[in-house]
């Protein structure tokens, strides 16, 4: 913090006020949720000498404007770029910060773009065509069912029909509904609860001279179960990718509690991309996120990353983890087993959906699959709509 | 508001007083505390477990020479354990004792008076004459319903009790919330708070912390300890040692009369239980790695 901070002396003159409000607008452009209250508070701070020294001014704005660790880390750079002189600005340009935090960029695949992420990406590009997703909820249920009879037996890898892909989203919603059984520690009043709510019972008896005539009962409240899906995006999974991407989109779009990740050799958090309202943009963002991933699959390493950095918040309150993978793993089976064991300890249910189980002659003999078997609560096939739909009752029974 | 502001003094005075109270802050924490006094907004502290979030509240209470009121959050925490509760048993006894004498209205007035009210931490905090420090610890463990309950309190500093009326804060408490990030807090709560993120201290600050907490320690040893712990944190561990672990280790080393880590690698390794808390991490830090870490320091 050298002395080259501009215009900090002189209290909150009109010029300074304008500069502060410009700075807040600048922060808003970078995804900070700052509002007029924060501006007012910054000016109060300024009036009390917050602008007297650079470190004080920086600390003041940082405490006022940041809301989470990400912003906290980003703030310093933004502050320097705005309040310091030219030198700092070139630094910012070198680091190539995006001008708007959430501006989605759409790139064309192939051509001279960055290294392509294997064949899977191409499949996603065609995943959603225009007109394919027009208000799926308004389609009458009966029609959907009759359409399903045509395709529900067809293997996902042979499906190109948009309606069938949309059905994958619907199945996901049913699946999420089947899992609604997480009991919380909060109680609610219930006519036929198993426990007596002593507090309320006594409270009511006060009006009857202390005789507990009206018994109030309570039971544990239930909440939707969190679902965390981990999708294998390696080359061998490519034929199933369109359907599974739609399936995950169905999960995260309709349930606040669902989360999705994608892995090949690395792990990427894809739920924010999937929540994009426009399906084509969602897929575009997915492609962007997946770029830079290599060719093979390192399931163990990816799970290790998940366990280390995401599990704590993603699995809070114990979740159901669904892994969508064929189990062909280029990494060490021991690592996969160790990480699955860790994951198993942290989640309530561990489900592995393997599309290859659909073919009659398949045996789970891939090394990865063998290593994983001891830790899985439910190993099921997910090669067509019927198999996905059959999953819901089995999950509910677990 | 000015009075609150004066309680704390300016940023530099806060920084000095914190050190006197045994807390060595990072560069920006005193500014955040100063703003807290100035603006009357709560302060949300985030950071890994064991970086000293709770200690901030304790140090602030010591600095202000005021009471620290702590509410530990957990899943299912509700109004009855956070705000207030009527003492039903006593109320029932009172009703029974006055059965058949006097009018019902008088009895009702009696049993819904202050005498029968059980204060819980949040109500206690706003009924103090001298502004206390209210620590709402690990808010991420409570559920969203509780967060909503807090919002009301944190914006108006008042609680309404239907039978008694509204209780307004006599002196606005200094509110500190801490979170480990196991759950995303709501935007509404974040918007109301000032924010500060605490990182693991760098070796230099950690050495100062050790010296502040263990005044008898040799300052070279403190520097060595801080350096080793800093290196251990860079290893890939499931449970990274926090500042509390560092202090335990330092105290144990002092207890053994060790002055130089380099000369006592074996003995220091015997005390690894104070730093490493899981079997897995123990396996990740075998004796050879340990020797390498310590040799580099000594």
| Fraction of residues in H or I helices of chain B | 40-55%
Compute the number of helices of chain B. 16
Radius of gyration of chain A (Å) = 27 Å
- Report the CATH superfamily of the largest domain in chain B: P-loop containing nucleotide triphosphate hydrolases
* Portion in helices of chain A: 40-55%
Order of helices and strands of chain B: HHHEHEHEHHEHEHEEEHEHHHHHH
- The CATH topology name of the largest domain in chain B reads Rossmann fold
Question: Can you tell me the CATH class of the largest domain in chain B?
Answer: Alpha Beta
Q: Please, what is the CATH homologous superfamily of the largest domain in chain A?
A: von Willebrand factor, type A domain
Largest interface: A-B, 39 and 44 residues
- Which ranges of chain A are low-confidence, i.e. pLDDT below 50, for 5 or more consecutive residues? 1-10, 88-150
Number of helices of chain A: 16
Q: Kindly state the number of beta strands of chain A.
A: 9
Shape annotation of chain B: elongated
Written overview of the protein:
The complex is a heterodimer of chains A (398) and B (298). Chain A is of the alpha/beta class and 398 residues long. Chain A has 3 domains: 14-95, no CATH class; 136-178 and 224-397, von Willebrand factor, type A domain (Rossmann fold), CATH 3.40.50; 186-221, no CATH class. Helices cover 47% and strands 12% of the residues of chain A. Chain A is built from 16 helices and 9 strands. In chain A, strands 6-5-4-7-8-9 form a 6-stranded mixed beta sheet. In chain A, a hairpin with a 3-residue loop joins β5 (258-263) and β6. In chain A, α8 (162-178) crosses α10. Chain A is globular. With 298 residues, chain B is of the alpha/beta class. Chain B has 3 domains: 2-77 and 125-197, P-loop containing nucleotide triphosphate hydrolases (Rossmann fold, 3-Layer(aba) Sandwich), CATH 3.40.50.300; 84-119, no CATH class; 203-297. Helix content of chain B is 50%, strand content 13%. Chain B is built from 16 helices and 9 strands. Chain B has helices spanning 2-8, 11-20, 29-39, 53-64, 79-82, 88-97, 104-111, 121-126, 144-156, 187-192, 203-213, 219-234, 243-255, 265-270, 279-284, 287-297; strands spanning 43-46, 68-72, 84-86, 117-119, 133-137, 158-161, 165-168, 174-179, 194-197. In chain B, strands 2-5-8-1-9 form a 5-stranded parallel beta sheet. A two-stranded antiparallel sheet of chain B has the order 3-4. A two-stranded antiparallel ribbon of chain B has the order 6-7. In chain B, a hairpin with a 3-residue loop joins β6 and β7. The longest helix of chain B is centred in the last third of the chain and has 16 residues, at 219-234. Chain B starts with a helix and ends with a helix. Chain A binds chain B through residues 33, 35, 37, 41, 44-45, 48-50, 55-56, 58-60, 62-64, 66-69, 72-73, 184-187, 199, 202-203, 205-206, 209-210, 308, 312-313, 316-317, and chain B through 5, 10-11, 27-28, 30-32, 35, 38-39, 41, 43, 46, 74-76, 78, 80, 85-86, 88-89, 91-92, 95-96, 99, 111, 143, 145, 181-184, 187, 190-191, 194-197, 236, 238.
């Amino acid at each position: 913090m050298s002395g080259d901070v501009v215009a900090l002396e002189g209290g909150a003159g009109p010029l300074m006020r304008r500069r502060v409000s410009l700075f807040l607008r600048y922060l808003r452009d970078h995804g900070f949720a700052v509002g007029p209250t924060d501006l007012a508070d910054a000016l109060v701070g300024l009036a009390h000498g917050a602008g007297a020294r650079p470190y004080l001014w920086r600390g003041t704005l940082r405490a006022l404007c940041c809301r989470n660790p990400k912003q906290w880390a980003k703030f310093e750079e933004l502050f320097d770029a705005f309040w310091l002189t030219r030198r700092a600005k070139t630094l910012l340009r070198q680091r190539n910060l995006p001008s708007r935090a959430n501006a989605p960029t759409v790139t064309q695949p192939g051509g001279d773009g960055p290294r392509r992420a294997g064949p899977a990406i191409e499949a996603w590009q065609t995943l959603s065509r225009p007109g394919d997703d027009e208000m799926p909820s308004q389609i009458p249920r009966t029609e959907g069912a009759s359409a399903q009879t045509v395709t529900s037996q067809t293997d996902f890898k042979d499906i190109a029909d948009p309606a069938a892909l949309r059905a994958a989203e619907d199945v996901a919603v049913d699946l999420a509904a089947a899992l609604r059984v997480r009991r919380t520690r909060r109680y609610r009043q219930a006519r036929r609860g198993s426990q007596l709510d002593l507090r309320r019972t006594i409270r009511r008896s006060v009006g009857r001279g202390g005789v507990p005539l009206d018994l109030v009962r309570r039971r544990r409240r239930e909440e939707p179960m969190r679902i965390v899906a981990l999708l294998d995006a390696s080359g061998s999974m490519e034929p199933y990718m369109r359907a599974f991407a739609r399936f995950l989109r169905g999960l995260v779009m309709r349930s606040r509690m669902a989360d999705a990740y994608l892995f090949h050799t690395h792990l990427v958090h894809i739920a924010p991309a999937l929540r994009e309202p426009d399906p084509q943009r969602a897929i575009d963002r997915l492609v962007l996120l997946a770029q830079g991933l290599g060719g093979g699959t390192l399931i163990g390493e990816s799970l290790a990353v998940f366990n280390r950095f995401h599990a704590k918040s993603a699995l809070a309150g114990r979740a159901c983890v669904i892994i969508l993978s064929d189990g062909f793993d280029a990494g060490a089976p021991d690592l996969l087993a160790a990480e699955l064991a860790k994951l198993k300890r942290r989640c309530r249910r561990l489900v592995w959906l393997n599309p290859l189980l659909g073919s009659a002659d398949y045996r789970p003999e891939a090394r990865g699959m063998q290593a994983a078997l001891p830790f899985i609560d439910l190993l099921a096939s997910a090669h067509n709509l019927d198999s996905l739909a059959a999953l819901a009752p089995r999950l509910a029974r677990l | 508001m000015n009075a609150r502001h004066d309680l704390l003094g300016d940023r530099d005075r806060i920084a000095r007083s914190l050190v006197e109270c045994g807390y060595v802050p990072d560069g920006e924490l005193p500014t955040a505390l100063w703003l807290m006094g100035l603006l009357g907004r709560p302060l949300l502290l985030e950071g890994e477990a064991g970086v000293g979030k709770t200690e901030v509240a304790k140090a602030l209470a010591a600095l202000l020479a005021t009471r620290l009121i702590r509410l530990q959050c957990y899943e299912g925490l509700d109004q009855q354990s956070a705000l207030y509760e009527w003492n039903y048993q006593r109320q029932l006894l009172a009703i029974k004792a006055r059965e058949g004498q006097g009018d019902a209205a008088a009895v009702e007035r009696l049993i819904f008076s202050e005498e029968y009210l059980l204060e819980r931490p949040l109500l206690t905090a706003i009924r103090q004459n001298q502004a206390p420090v209210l620590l709402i610890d690990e808010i991420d463990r409570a559920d969203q319903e509780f967060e909503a309950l807090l919002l009301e309190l944190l914006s108006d500093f008042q609680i309404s009790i239907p039978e008694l009326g509204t209780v307004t804060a006599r002196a606005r408490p200094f509110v500190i919330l801490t979170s480990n990030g196991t759950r995303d807090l709501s935007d509404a709560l974040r918007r109301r708070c000032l924010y500060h993120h605490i990182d693991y201290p760098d070796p230099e600050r950690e050495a100062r912390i050790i010296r502040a907490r263990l005044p008898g320690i040799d300052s070279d040893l403190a520097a060595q300890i801080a350096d080793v712990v800093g290196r251990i944190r860079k290893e890939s561990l499931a449970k990274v040692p926090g500042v509390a672990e560092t202090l335990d280790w330092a105290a144990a080393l002092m207890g053994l009369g060790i002055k130089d880590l380099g000369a006592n690698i074996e003995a220091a390794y015997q005390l690894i239980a104070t730093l490493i808390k899981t079997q897995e991490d123990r396996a990740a830090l075998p004796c050879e790695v340990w020797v390498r870490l310590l040799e580099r320091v000594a």
